[in-house]
Amino acid sequence: MKKIILSVCLFIIGMSAFAQQDAETWFDQANAAYNEGRYDTAMILYQSVLDADVESASLYCNMGDAQYKLRNYPMAIYYYEKALKLDPGYDDARHNLKIANLAIVDKIEPVPQSFIARGWDKVKNLHATDGWAVLSLAFFALLLISLFAFFRSRRMGLRKTGFFVAVLSLLLFAFSVIFALQSHHDLQSHGAGIVMAPTVMVKSSPNESSVDLFVLHEGTKVEVMEESESWLKIKIANGSVGWMPSSSLATL
């Protein structure tokens, strides 16, 4: 029985290794096709990588670039947003997203954030979840070292240094854990999406006979607040709220 289990495990590991190798080959071939201007072919190959259950911020960003070259701006925005969801600090994806947003119809002014909220988001987006997790471990290790220096050292200067470093490390550890948890929550959340229909009438309630509130066009990012059968309650950047068909939205 143990031999059978071991054989199955080895088979799964072997298949995973082959899939990973194929994904790397497809990714390289897709990049080559993109550089040659064969954007449709590049998209097919990038999709093959995704179908192999391999995803990364760079993959999604490259897919966004290919869709932008194909002038499919809603899908380009979708993939850039996917890249930033995996890695909020990905500057190339953020820059390209701004360019792609210039090509869509809706130019929605967001609700102004407070200085503290802007600063908090800016710091949180410096690293992805894994980055904050690694930093939290590093700060925790520094905390232990500084506490050891504080309790074990006989020199007053070293004890003072150990105390202040311990306090600072504790604060940095706490903030890095909070940022890691928030980044993980954002990564797992499906509370946003990109409008894919050319034009969508946003309603006051989840039925076709309700009052028309405003119109959205393809490429616009919305926040998903609630779901009711085939309808979604959404909020746009300026704070306006309404209902739209779920079929018109690609969730992130």
Quick gist of this model?
The protein is an alpha+beta fold and 252 residues long. It has eight helices and seven strands, in the order H-H-H-H-H-H-H-H-E-E-E-E-E-E-E. The two termini are 43 Å apart.
CATH architecture of the largest domain: Alpha Horseshoe
Q: How many helices?
A: 8
Q: What share of the residues does DSSP label as strand, in percent?
A: 5-15%
The class by helix and strand makeup works out as alpha+beta
Radius of gyration over all CA atoms, rounded: 24 Å
What composes the largest sheet?
5 strands, antiparallel
- Integer count of domains: 3
The overall strand count is: 7
Give the SSE string.
HHHHHHHHEEEEEEE
Q: Give the terminus-to-terminus CA distance.
A: 43 Å
- Class of the largest domain in CATH? Mainly Alpha
What does this structure look like?
It is built from eight helices and seven strands. The chain has a five-stranded antiparallel beta sheet with strand order 6-5-4-1-7. It has a two-stranded antiparallel sheet with strand order 2-3. The model is unreliable at 1-19 (pLDDT under 50). The protein is α+β, with helices and mostly antiparallel strands and 252 residues long. The longest helix is centred in the first third of the chain and has 34 residues, at 2-35. The chain folds into three domains: 2-101, Serine Threonine Protein Phosphatase 5, Tetratricopeptide repeat (Alpha Horseshoe), CATH 1.25.40.10; 115-188; 192-251, Roll (SH3 type barrels), CATH 2.30.30. Strand 5 and strand 6 form a beta hairpin.
